[in-house]
Design goal:
The complex is a heterodimer of chains A (about 240) and B (about 140). Chain A is mainly alpha-helical and about 240 residues long. Chain A has 3 domains: about 40 residues; about 80 residues, no CATH class; about 100 residues, no CATH class. Chain A contains 9 helices and no strands. Chain B has one domain. Chain B has 6 helices and no strands. In chain B, helix 1 crosses helix 5 and helix 5 packs antiparallel against helix 6. The chains are: A mainly alpha (about 240), B mainly alpha (about 140). Chains A and B meet through helix 2, helix 3, helix 4, helix 5 and helix 7 of A and helix 1, helix 2, helix 3, helix 4 and helix 5 of B.
């Protein structure tokens, strides 16, 4: 009943009859075949953890996060943490927008602290840094654009490897992207979690408008801006 | 005032971070693929999270579910408007496509050790700050 997210043949399970085969009719036959079954089952269960998780696991899991926060008397929204952090840094002294009771938002800072810890656990103990199983067409398109790491890495090393930080172009790119995310989410009053999931799940029309905006901006950039941006990486 | 149930919120966050990283939702590549409509994956994640979220909200209303403190679960309606959601959303979309990370995954990525994301995060705070400064001059 335990199946792998991935095609089994890719998993080395084909090595099923091991060297213990020669004992098959010997005294240790039963024990060794039991051991083999346990080992195979363990491999299969482990692969559920170490393989990339499918959407139908991740989506409901995120809904559980949403429900968990509602049960905790809070709502799901990550970008408001940036406002809280600005307030903690003293931005409220000169800007009214940051002059609020940020102490009431500490619970959300704990959530993002947990998310960091979760990222650390997934990366180091759950094979989280594995290459993403992309659409093959997208893969070759990225590689043709100079993003060679698409087949082998979780994140494009051209942009997100520490050594890419030696390139001022990449630094500018990261600063620009982050700035727009920060400005846009606060202007729109939420990001993917606050609008696309939490807001839409609560049937909020403003969230639908915001999500339409997410895609207007994202599609425009992907089709008309990213090709130029990525051409920098063509060797 | 100390935070109530810090461990509870920490565990919710840990779970969230693991899901984001393991599902690829934190991967720049997945966002690129999503904006090309080249895979159902990200739409499946957001769509099924939304579907289950709708279900949970309906169950909460139907059965009058209380939170852990025994208070009714309420969610305030978003302020009505069009301009701020459309313009702000579009600006975020542009940034999302470039940086490939929205605010949630950003934290999971920093925890995972993708250090350049720290720069993205710092700059996100700068963007938030600038919004706060120019807010009164923007259409909402």
């Amino acid at each position: 009943m335990f199946i792998s997210w991935k095609d089994k043949s890719a998993h080395g399970l084909s090595s099923y009859p091991l060297e213990s085969d020669k004992n098959y009719f010997g005294s240790g036959a039963l024990l060794s075949s039991l051991t083999q079954i346990v080992r195979t089952r363990t491999d299969e269960i482990m692969s559920l953890i170490t393989d990339p998780w499918p959407w139908y696991v991740a989506g409901p899991a995120i809904a559980i996060v949403l429900a968990g926060l509602l049960l905790g008397g809070k709502t799901f929204g990550m970008s408001s943490n940036m406002r809280t952090l600005c307030a903690i840094c003293g931005a409220g002294n000169n800007t009214e927008f940051f002059n609020f009771e940020w102490r009431k938002q500490i619970w959300n800072l704990i959530v993002i602290g947990g998310a960091m810890l979760g990222g650390l656990i997934a990366q180091n103990f759950m094979n989280g840094g594995e290459a993403v199983p992309l659409n093959p067409e997208i893969l070759s398109q990225l590689q043709a654009s100079g993003v060679e790491s698409a087949a082998t890495h979780y994140m494009p090393t051209e942009i997100f490897a520490s050594k890419s930080m030696e390139d001022p172009y990449v630094i500018m790119l990261l600063i620009l992207g982050g700035f727009l995310v920060g400005f846009g989410t606060r202007y729109a009053g939420g990001c993917t979690s606050g609008h696309a999931i939490s807001g839409l799940a609560n049937l909020q029309l403003p969230s639908l408008i915001a999500v339409i905006g997410f895609f207007i901006g994202g599609l425009f950039t992907t089709y008309f801006v990213l090709p130029t941006i990525l051409s920098h990486f063509i060797a | 005032m100390p935070v109530k149930r810090p461990l509870y919120f920490l565990l919710v966050g840990v779970f969230f971070g693991i899901v984001l990283l393991k599902s690829g939702a934190a991967s720049w590549f997945r966002i690129y693929e999503m904006f090309h409509f080249a895979s159902f994956h990200m739409f499946g994640i957001i769509g099924s999270a939304l579907a289950f979220g709708l279900l949970f909200n309906q169950l909460i209303k139907r059965f009058n579910v209380k939170d852990l403190d025994g208070n009714p679960i309420t969610q305030t309606d978003k302020n009505p408007g069009i301009a701020r959601y459309l313009i702000g959303g579009t600006v975020f979309g542009i940034g999302w496509a470039i940086a490939g990370a929205c605010p949630g995954p950003m934290f999971a990525l920093m925890g995972a050790g993708y250090w350049p994301v720290i720069l993205v995060f710092a700059s996100t705070m700068l963007g938030t700050y600038v919004y706060g400064v120019v807010r009164d001059r923007l259409p909402h």
